[in-house]
Amino acid sequence: MALKITVIGTGYLGATHAAAMAELGFEVLGLDVVPEKIEMLQRGEVPMYEPGLEELLAKHVAGIEGSSGRLRFTMDWAEVAEFGDVHFVCVNTPQKHGEYACDMSYVDAAFASLAPHLTGPALVVGKSTVPVGSAERLGRTLVGLAPAGEDVELAWNPEFLREGLAVQDTLHPDRIVAGVRSERAEKLLREVYATPLAEGTPFVVTDFPTAELVKTAANSFLATKISFINAMAEVCEAAGGDVVKLAEAIGYDDRIGKKFLRAGIGFGGGCLPKDIRAFMARAGELGADQALTFLREIDSINMRRRGQMVEMTREALGGGSFLGKRIAVLGATFKPDSDDVRDSPALNVAGQIHLQGGQVTVYDPKGMDNARRLFPTLAYAETAAEAVRGAHAVLHLTEWSEFRELDPAALGEAVTDRVVLDGRNALDPAVWRAAGWTYRAMGRPAA
Ligand code: UDX
């Protein structure tokens, strides 16, 4: 008989995982503790913007005309426990307020709510990004609280999806990591992932601590690559070099590679910044803090970029105060193809200039509602053309394709001064300069 799957937590990770499991042919029951989310998902609506996810839900959510009916949602823990053979825990682990450590309260609550209902054999699979050592502790909690005792087992199976590409990354992962303690757990996970495994996806079997560490190590490496190129951008700015050419040239070396070397205002979002901080905090608890002191530098290079963007803007406006200056900000989300504004470098830069007296108007293709909630005091425009009207400077801070397709000549008619600052090195300087704009970018010569 085919396995039945449950997915606990329906954020970017959980909602995508649930839909992907239904796509792979399993009967799936998703759970969340937020009633509004469940109501939306039951109608096939996605509580956030994630390309392709709505289409996948429409294909599988029960009750939608023409759907497979394999995917349902509930708020009932007993129903979830009764339904599933394999339970994926996909709740989030944000940064604790005012601390580096991550907040495990949602994970702990999920285990505490599920375990007492587990009366028969089950595999609980942790997917959330957690401090190393959590799986060991949660495994004990599970066996202690579940009426089925030792028949309930834990596995750790980190997820590497990128927002904006979540569906593609979940259906076609580049590797599957399985932290397991028994052959039974490994067999069940192989069964769940049989389709990607048949397509040749590597399956790495490890112990619990290694599985947890793979995720934080991968994110630390990615953060390090970005801060490395941003450090090179700082040196290029001081020496008159061009970081875009530099990244291209070093990227031809296969050992370095071209990806994740785009200099600009740095990384944000709900993962990289908080994951490297939580990793440092956990290493400190383990007495291994010295091993990760470099991550402190990675974090500060990254945070420094935001202030440097503000200063570059000030300089481009002739120096001095922002008072009386109109600044158009294109982009609010932490990356394109997402509506996520968590720890967004773009909004941070917009907020800093606003606090210093600049008249900032923000436009983003998908992130406006979330941005308005987070920064209600900023002004917002409904289109890029409206945002730039009367601007003394245009800041390009999130590289949506919509912005690359803008016509600088037409836009130039609406602004006060043709000054554009590219915080993502994603616009074509030649095209903007040809249309009479002063183009400045991070880590590149002024002209
Ligand atoms: C990241 C990891 O990539 C993913 O594997 C993990 O599961 C979750 O964290 P995500 O946060 O969705 O995914 O975004 P990612 O594409 O990694 O970008 C993170 C940030 O780095 C963005 O703000 C992006 O703009 C920035 N970035 C990325 C750069 O500044 N330069 C680059 O070259 C690449």
UniProtKB/TrEMBL annotation:
Family named by the database record: Belongs to the UDP-glucose/GDP-mannose dehydrogenase family.
Active site: 271 (nucleophile)
Binding residue positions for NAD(+): 32, 37, 93, 129, 163, 274, 342
EC number annotated for this UniProt entry: 1.1.1.22
Binding residues annotated for substrate, in chain numbering: 160-163, 215, 260-264, 268, 335
Domain UDP-glucose/GDP-mannose dehydrogenase C-terminal span(s) in chain numbering: 328-429
Protein's name according to its UniProt entry: UDP-glucose 6-dehydrogenase
Pathway note: Nucleotide-sugar biosynthesis; UDP-alpha-D-glucuronate biosynthesis; UDP-alpha-D-glucuronate from UDP-alpha-D-glucose: step 1/1
